[in-house]
């Protein structure tokens, strides 16, 4: 927004169309054709609910759509390619991770505002990853995968640090 709208506006130039194209696309196609992608994934799930079609199965099964090689939804992607059991295990791990992260609040001393802010930041980032993944292809994009792994590494490291030093974050 800064590069495409604010700076041109500041220089009395027209915006570079960034926001206008997003608004136009959203008005013309609110789901950006994701409905077709999601229905194809649902068809896969109905065909093989327990173990799925395997890795890259979505790209093979849904290639006639000629839209995308993944459903732009992490739940549907895991369910359609890996099946119910894998999705269940992943959701259990996510919930367990969030519960553990939440448990670190009790280990933080109530006056450790820095630690509480970091905890809120980790919850916010984790929530953003989960919600963004419901509408984007973050599971298959290498940059997104890298940032998810970095997030997990930082969250796990911070969590262990809080518990090892008895609730006080070492500075």
Overview in brief:
The protein contains eight helices and no strands. It has helices at residues 2-10, 18-28, 34-47, 57-61, 74-82, 84-107, 113-132, 142-164.
What does the model show?
With 171 residues, this protein is mainly α. It has eight helices and no strands. α6 (84-107) packs parallel to α8. The longest helix has 24 residues, at 84-107. The radius of gyration is 21 Å and the shape is flat. The model has no long low-confidence stretch (mean pLDDT 83).
Write the layout of secondary structure elements.
Layout: H1 2-10, H2 18-28, H3 34-47, H4 57-61, H5 74-82, H6 84-107, H7 113-132, H8 142-164
Q: Helix proportion of residues, in percent?
A: 55-70%
> Low-confidence segments, ≥5 residues, pLDDT <50?
none
So how many helices? 8
Radius of gyration in whole Å, from Cα? 21 Å
Beta-strand content estimate: under 5%
Silhouette:
flat
Number of strands: 0
Distance between the termini: 35 Å
